[in-house]
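Sequence in, structure out. Go.
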Amino acid sequence: MNDLDLPIIFLDIEDLAQRWKCRTSTIEALAETDKLRFCIRPAALEIALAGTPPAEYDKLLQSLSNMYIDHRYIYMMFADKSRKIEIARIGNYDVRATLKDPLRVGFFDLIIHMNQVKDFEQKHRNIKDDAFELMAADFTCFKCYGKEYRFGETQAKVIKRLWQAREDGQPWMYGKTILKDINSSSDRIKNLFSHNKHWREIIQSDKNGKYKLKLPPRQLTLFGQDV
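Output:
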């Protein structure tokens, strides 16, 4: 497997700002208003607890297994990025019950699960999409920019997979990854579409093995503005 094909499970604040093409301050505001819920990288937490007495270390890690930060303390995260972030409570666990001082982790040790990102995107997505009209649930028939297209079942699975990639905000996919995902016996995308001359009107190649739909990226609406 190519390293680039590894699934992304968590994003940090910079990753999320780049994905949504907005400022990191926007992400911070979403966290401060409890619209996003960040957690701490496990490795960072282990480092932060390095000075904990051995008898308490495993017990504390187990107690903090979900590692979610209580938003009553989130204002402390963004006060000063140049310093370590002080966290007094994680979930329902008061760190001060075990430690004399709050935990201190770096600003970019904060991460968010991809499932939460996708849920947020689905909730705040600008659903108007005049470029594409699905006419069959299995993607065998649809309209793109007003023109109707029909594809076979396996071909439609490719289009559906690329649609999902676009929905996830990462529209480019390796052809081999797509074919593997849909359990196709074809070894190349163009071979799979050899009997449909219109496929290149819908699918774009970067000439280096990646493909995407010829559609504009989805937009998110945050605070009343598209980002």
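Check: The chain has two domains: 10-122, 128-226. DSSP finds nine helices and 15 strands in the chain.
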